[in-house]
Write a structure and sequence with these properties.
Helix content: 25-40%
Radius of gyration: 25 Å
Largest sheet: 8 strands, antiparallel
Number of strands: 20
Strand order of the largest sheet: 1-2-3-16-15-17-13-14
Number of helices: 7
Structural class: alpha+beta
Strand content: 25-35%
Order of helices and strands: HHHHEEEEHEEEEEEEHEEEEEHEEEE
Length: about 325
């Protein structure tokens, strides 16, 4: 056998040898490299709209501190301040379906829509009598939050959605302390802003949904019976409120509104689920309330808090893989 033939034989033998470790390393590289590069493309790339959307989405999530791994606080505030685009716009891009009478005076419908991220899905609950709406507060306030299903059960209600936000001075994230001003049965049950004014989402004795900046003193003067603090307002006096989409991005959403006849509208939009629903921008939520002829509407706490329950069952598809989040307040429907 010639030397040339021998070399060819050895080459073919080496070439045909399967090396699983190299294949595994190649697959890992193909997965990890795009993941590692994605944040740099988003935050430092030439796509201003994508950067604004990403900053707004993370900024309003449970972990806004992650932004500081990539951007200085001054840059984050600059992007938030400049983000005034309307992601959802005023396009009628939603549709209603599958109306179900859950109980006397309570109807639930599916809501479906389309935005820049794709399709979104959620639930809308219509409550004919606004005087049935109460704010439920965790029974372990200052210590621990409750799941929405427990908030509903503990107060003797039959349905509900999550309510206002909560603050977390110790980083525990257990929903123990409602943020701003919280009112139940006409009593101020929690206040962490002293007598400063914050945006209130509440109901008076006649069941009118009241929105606007109020202090604890003004809440008493106006006879507010049930209230939480959150923002932004979406519809005030029948007109679109002064809000923009950019600072909020796309996320699971919860919101409350009211029609001219007094009917209360609960809205919960699923999000962060690529095969189901990526979430909604503020204009998407506004469009939903416009479709339901709301004259007043406001955004509530969203993200992993977004939830709607009836008779102890969760009606929407939760984003949190661990199930119901522990929260401090909810808007509930009494029997």
């Amino acid at each position: 056998m010639s030397i040339a033939n021998e070399r060819i034989k050895r080459f073919n033998k080496k070439r045909g040898k399967f090396k699983p470790k190299l294949l595994i390393l190649f697959i890992i590289f193909q997965i990890l490299f795009p993941m590692l590069m994605a944040p740099f493309i988003i935050f430092y790339g030439p796509f201003d709209t994508l950067r604004s959307l990403a900053v707004g989405t993370v900024y309003t999530s449970r972990h806004p501190q992650y932004l500081r791994f990539f951007l200085a606080q001054e840059e984050i505030e600059k992007i938030i301040g400049q983000s005034n685009q309307s992601l959802g716009g005023d396009i009628e891009n939603t549709n209603r379906s599958n109306a179900v009478n859950l109980a006397s005076g309570i109807v639930v419908e599916d809501i479906n829509g389309q935005n820049a991220l794709g399709k979104f899905h959620g639930k809308v609950m219509l409550i004919k009598d606004p005087k049935r709406i109460k704010v439920a507060v965790t029974k372990d306030i200052g210590v621990n939050g409750n799941r929405l299903s427990d908030l509903v059960k503990n107060i003797g209600a039959i349905a509900g959605i999550n309510g206002g936000g909560f603050y977390d001075p110790d980083g525990i994230g257990n929903g123990a302390l409602p943020d701003g001003l919280t009112v139940h049965n006409g009593e101020l049950v929690h206040n962490n802003v002293e007598d400063n004014a914050v945006n209130i989402i509440g109901l008076d004795k006649e069941g009118h949904l009241i929105l606007g900046n109020m202090s604890s003193t003004q809440i008493r003067e106006k006879g507010i019976q049930e209230a939480v603090h959150f923002e932004p307002n979406l519809i005030v006096d029948g007109k679109r409120a002064d809000f923009t989409d950019g600072p909020y991005g796309y996320a699971p959403r919860t919101a409350i509104g009211q029609k001219a006849d007094g009917t209360i509208i609960f809205v919960v939009i699923d999000g962060r689920q690529p095969t189901w629903s990526m979430g909604a921008g503020m204009s998407d939520v506004y469009n939903i309330f416009k479709k339901y002829d709301a004259v007043t509407a406001a955004n509530l706490d969203g993200g992993s808090s977004s939830e709607m329950v009836y008779d102890g069952k969760v009606l929407n598809k939760l984003w949190n893989i661990f199930g119901e989040r522990y929260i401090s307040t909810g808007f509930v429907v009494m029997p």
